Amino acid sequence: PDRRDAGGQPWAESELQGGHREGGKPTEVKPDDLQLVRLNEGHYLNFFDCGEESMDRWLCNQALDDQEAGLSATHVWAQPDGMVFAYITLLHALVDESSGPFWRMLKPRGYRRNDAHCVLIGKIALDQSLRGRGLGEDLFADAFVLAIDAVQIMGGVFIVIDPMAGRPRLRTMYEGYGFRTIDGTDRMYMSVKDFQNGVPLEG
Question: DSSP labels for 40-75?
Answer without folding.
Answer: -TT-B-TT---S-HHHHHHHHHTHHHHHHTTS-EEE
